[in-house]
Amino acid sequence: MLEYKILFILVEGYDDELFFTDLIKPKLIQKFDAVILKQHAGGSKHWIKDIVRGEIMGKGGHYIYIIDREEFDCVSLKLHKTLEKRQYLEKNKIMVVVIEIESWFLALLNEEDCNSLGFKEYYNSTDNINKEEFKSIMPNHYKTRQDCFVDILRHISRKKEEAIKEAKKKNASFNYFMTRFLDKNQILH
């Protein structure tokens, strides 16, 4: 009998879900029978535990738990604090985005894309971009970051593979995620 493979991607919030739904899920759906995204930010400790232990592990599923590094000085410290707080998570299933998801969105854009969308600056590396930095360079015609994110995804929609290659060069944590979970398929390990 064939095994039904299901993957849950537990993302922090709406911005992460937008990114993963548009760019990552289509790649993973080729390797899994189902890919389900769930937001975990704001969820109680018990709610997340119930999802991981019940809904995911109970169904023989796999998961990736996505978190932002945020104010932590290094990935290992953020990972340690997360595992301290959520002991039921498996270390190898956690992905720390450096610094925040805004850095991954910005990494998708080459210099021509930045100019076309009206960004105030182009970055060769987005490893140090947080929400505040992103907002400071975001074109004024966007009312919200989400409007800008949607426009970035629309702008790259015809050249996603090229944009993903660009992002892998410009953001180390994105490159690590893509290499580990997509190229090497280490989700099942």
Question: What do these coordinates show?
Answer:
- The protein is α/β, with parallel strands linked by helices and 189 residues long.
- It has one domain.
- The chain contains nine helices and four strands.
- Helix 1 packs parallel to helix 7, helix 4 packs across helix 8 and helix 8 packs across helix 9.
The end-to-end distance, rounded to whole angstroms, is 21 Å
Q: What class do helices, strands and sheet pairing give?
A: alpha/beta
Gyration radius, rounded: 17 Å
Weakly predicted, low-confidence segments: none
Strand arrangement, largest sheet?
2-1-3-4
Q: How many strand units? A: 4
- The domain count comes to 1
Q: If you average the pLDDT, what whole number results?
A: 92
What is the helix content?
40-55%
Largest sheet: 4 strands, parallel
Strand content: 5-15%
Q: Secondary-structure element sequence?
A: EHEHEHEHHHHHH
Q: How many helical elements?
A: 9
The geometry reads as: globular
What keywords describe this structure?
4-stranded parallel sheet; 9 helices; 50% helix; alpha/beta
What layout of secondary structure does this protein have?
Blueprint lengths: L5 E6 L2 H15 L5 E6 L5 H12 L5 E7 L6 H11 L8 E4 L3 H7 L3 H7 L13 H7 L7 H12 L3 H11 L1 H12 L6
Parallel strand pairs: 1-2, 1-3, 3-4
Helix pairs in contact: 1-7, 4-8, 8-9
